[in-house]
Design goal:
Elements lengths: L1 E4 L4 E4 L2 H15 L4 E3 L5 E3 L7 E3 L11 H10 L5 H11 L6 H6 L17 E3 L2 E3 L3 H15 L6 H11 L6 H12 L6
Helix pairs in contact: 3-7, 6-7
């Protein structure tokens, strides 16, 4: 379980005591209804304000990596354009064999972010490093949310990647080739 600190703009891992406290509070408050009966006798919704966003990651946070697990996790978190992102992971991680992926759990060749929310723990081997591969996927999702909010189509996304993401030329064609070559037998 992680807590987002809006002052430092970082996700911080919670201690077991804090996790137990949050879970007990969730159980306690879930036993009450979110609806109240107003003076008119009609049911009205009561909104609860929260100062901090608490994110509960899947209990399988340290799940072993596999291409299928990557695909499933991207679908679970509702990753935008998962087929393109999967192809990027294949390319950027050297088909999941690069030193950056094996040492840093970095699927996308990401650098440590400076202006947006990030899940990386720092920089090693000149790239962001993570405690596990899922944190790398979340960091990429934050990248998408911060920089690519206006992109609505695959065409726009591929054009953006070609112009902005990779250092090598013709990145778009390379991504498309990976998508077409694999047709993602892994994707169900």
């Amino acid at each position: 379980m992680y807590k987002f600190c809006k002052h430092t703009l970082e996700w911080k891992k919670l201690s077991l005591f804090k996790i137990a406290t949050v879970l007990l509070l969730l159980i306690f408050f879930s036993s009450f209804t979110s609806y109240m009966v107003g003076a008119s006798g009609k049911v009205k919704y009561v909104e609860h304000e929260r100062e901090q966003l608490v994110m509960i990651l899947n209990d399988k946070e340290n799940e072993a990596f596999s291409p299928q697990a990557l695909w499933n996790y991207m679908k679970e978190i509702n990753m935008q354009f998962p087929d393109i992102v999967f192809a990027q992971a294949v390319l950027e991680s050297g088909n999941f064999n690069s030193k950056i992926f094996r040492s840093n759990h970095n699927l996308f060749g990401m650098r440590e972010a400076g202006r947006r929310i990030k899940t990386c723990k720092g920089t090693e081997l000149n790239h962001a490093y993570y405690d596990n591969w899922k944190e790398s996927v979340l960091d990429y999702a934050f990248y998408q949310a911060y920089y690519l909010d206006d992109i609505k189509t695959k065409e726009m996304y591929l054009t953006y990647l070609d112009n902005n993401y990779a250092e090598s030329g013709n990145y778009r064609k390379t991504v498309e080739d990976v998508i077409n070559a694999n047709k993602f037998n892994i994707i169900k």
